[in-house]
Design a protein that fits this description.
Strands 1-2 form a two-stranded antiparallel ribbon. The protein is an all-alpha fold. It contains 5 helices and 2 strands, in the order αββαααα. The chain has a domain of 96 residues: Up-down Bundle (Four Helix Bundle (Hemerythrin (Met), subunit A)), CATH 1.20.120.
């Protein structure tokens, strides 16, 4: 039995090592390559397939656009301003979640972004200084940049 195994392994290795003769038959090789792309900044390990952004639902897009408009227009000067911002963002993120019909990897990638965004939004509630709110607002804007890098 050992001899048969040795012969089979030797035949396999010998056959793989010598490709000098061509039988005349053309061999088609599938050269399709799927690449994942990581774009900076990427603190959430988000990926793209072949450099393509993930497509989100239209209802979700409307809510994300509302969040972006709110953040662009925001200029908080008091703790109450930041608390109000948190409330607005909470409303819009709930709408994002409730309108989600995404499935598969696109859904998973969205959650990699959305959960940290929600956590940042929640941090606005407990701030004790306007400077803390400014810092969190900057981070929220950075999250929106990340979103637009990976989703359309």
């Amino acid at each position: 039995m050992k001899i048969l195994g040795t012969i089979l392994i030797s035949a396999f290795l010998f056959g793989c090592g010598s490709q000098e003769e061509n039988s005349g038959a053309d061999v088609a090789i599938d050269t399709t390559v799927v690449t994942t792309t990581e774009v900076e900044p990427n603190p959430h390990d988000l990926i793209m397939i072949d450099g393509q952004k993930w497509v989100i639902d239209e209802g979700m897009r409307v809510s994300i656009d509302s969040i972006e408009l709110r953040m662009q227009a925001f200029s908080g000067t008091t703790l109450a301003d930041y608390e109000a911002l948190s409330g607005d963002l909470k409303h819009h993120t709930k709408t994002v979640i409730s309108s989600c019909t995404m499935k598969g990897q696109a859904h998973d990638e969205l959650h990699k972004w959305l959960l940290p965004f929600i956590d940042l939004r929640k941090e606005l509630i407990g701030i004790t200084a306007v400077e803390d709110g400014e810092e969190i607002a900057t981070e929220l804007n950075n999250e929106l940049t990340i979103f637009n890098t990976y989703f359309k």
